[in-house]
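quick q for whoever's on today - can somebody do inverse folding on this one?? i tried earlier but teh output was garbage lol. tokens:
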């Protein structure tokens, strides 16, 4: 409720219309597991499909108003699909001023839009929704001769909401910590379970088991379980190869708990022992991550961790014989991109790649307490003539979830073993 009032204040005047996500068919009569829209859930806590939130900003005579449109009670449908709140119970439980059946949206919305100065909604993501917004607006315009004024402007509300979502409150941080704890346990279980000759999907099953076992509703994104050279495919999700002794296994997996994502990557040896070459690359990525983490503090800007990681990696690539020349030359020519081609992190929240601007007025954004991000440097070495053969097919990424605090940062994902000693000990 506080968030809805905050939105009303940020709008100043006008009406916000925010729909939840549609249900999506997977094939024939089977649907994908339902996931609500993040903006809608952030403002309502309401998980059912077929719902729309209306927030009307306060005006001279009227306080701000919050209205929910949702599915009607329908005992017959509930026999098939389960409990639904219905407008009356939803209004009570979620603190709305009014609630109506979603079937009345077309009937009631033009009236709600009448004499509002502006519409705030999610624009450009769903053409059907954009058309409905225009349709309702035109219905109000048709009443102009009876003295009704239609909204003069339509704004994208995402910029306002993104700023709110970027700074996490205490409740959100608690949920994210719980999600991170579950994911860390899943990575531990993977390390303890893996044996040479198992298949990648057997390890994926252990991850999913752990997520659900502890109450997480879903993986926050498709798990990457990549043995050997598969780790050099950044978005590898086939997860169907046999794991070989002597190879590394890269796992990028995190659960979603109550709408919040976690995002952890760990890389460890299938047989429990790092080879000398694997150790060299692993220590380099770990050092790059430590340098990046050191830069995560209030006042530093978004690009500082990335630059710190690049500096360490470029030096290391030269020392390992992967790149040639000086650190400055490798950074300048971007030769490091042959082995490190992605950025060092992203905002994390309800969406794994969460909302929030990375730049403001053209300059990298500064860190503030309550922001949550990942720090995830890596190194991916494909076979090539000019690359020492003992490094071929080594792919390593180390990814943690980090909260910016008043004094620096806090790791949400410390429970996932990370040093070579910790990993080898757990895998004994
Ligand atoms: N798991 C997605 C990412 O690391 O960005
Ligand atoms: Mn990530
Ligand atoms: Mn990840």
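ok took a stab at it. sequence:
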């Amino acid at each position: 409720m506080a968030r809805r009032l905050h939105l009303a204040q940020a709008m100043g005047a006008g009406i916000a219309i925010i729909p939840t996500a549609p249900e999506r068919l997977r094939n024939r009569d089977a649907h994908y597991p339902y996931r609500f829209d993040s903006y809608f859930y952030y403002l309502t806590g309401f998980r059912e499909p077929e719902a729309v939130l209306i927030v009307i900003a306060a005006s001279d005579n009227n306080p701000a108003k919050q209205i929910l449109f949702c599915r009607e009670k329908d005992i017959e449908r509930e026999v098939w699909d389960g409990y639904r709140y219905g407008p009356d119970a939803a209004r009570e439980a979620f603190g709305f001023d009014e609630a109506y059946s979603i079937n009345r949206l077309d009937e009631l919305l033009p009236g709600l839009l009448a004499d509002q100065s502006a519409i705030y909604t999610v624009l450009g993501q769903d053409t059907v929704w954009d058309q409905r917004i225009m349709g309702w607006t035109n219905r109000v315009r048709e009443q102009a001769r009876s003295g009704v004024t239609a909204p003069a402007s339509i704004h994208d509300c995402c910029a306002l909401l993104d700023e709110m979502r970027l700074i996490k409150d205490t409740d959100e941080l608690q949920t994210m910590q719980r999600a991170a704890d579950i994911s860390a346990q899943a990575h531990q279980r993977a390390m303890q379970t893996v044996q040479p000759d198992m298949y990648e999907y057997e390890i994926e099953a252990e991850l999913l088991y752990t997520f659900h076992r502890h109450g997480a509703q879903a993986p926050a994104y498709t798990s990457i379980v990549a043995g050997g050279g598969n780790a050099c495919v950044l978005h590898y999700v086939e997860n169907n190869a046999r794991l070989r002794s002597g190879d590394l296994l890269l796992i990028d997996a995190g659960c979603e708990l109550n709408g919040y994502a976690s995002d952890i990557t760990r890389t460890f040896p299938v047989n429990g022992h790092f080879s000398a070459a694997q150790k060299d690359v692993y220590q380099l990525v770990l050092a790059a991550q430590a340098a990046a983490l050191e830069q995560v503090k209030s006042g530093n800007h978004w690009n500082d961790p990335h630059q710190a990681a690049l500096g360490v990696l470029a030096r290391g690539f030269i020392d390992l014989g992967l790149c040639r020349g000086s650190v400055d030359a490798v950074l300048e020519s971007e030769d490091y991109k042959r082995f490190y081609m992605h950025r060092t992190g992203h905002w994390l929240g309800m969406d794994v790649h969460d909302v929030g601007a990375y730049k403001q007025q053209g300059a990298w954004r500064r860190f503030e307490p309550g922001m949550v991000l990942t720090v995830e440097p890596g190194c991916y070495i494909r076979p090539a003539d000019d690359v020492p053969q003992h490094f071929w097919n080594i792919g390593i990424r180390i990814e943690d979830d980090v909260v910016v605090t008043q004094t620096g940062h806090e790791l949400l994902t410390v429970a996932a073993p990370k040093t070579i000693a910790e990993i080898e000990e757990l895998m004994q």
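fwiw Residues 167-427 form a domain with the Creatine Amidinohydrolase fold (CATH 3.90.230.10). also Residues 170-193 form the longest helix (24 residues). so keep that in mind when u check it
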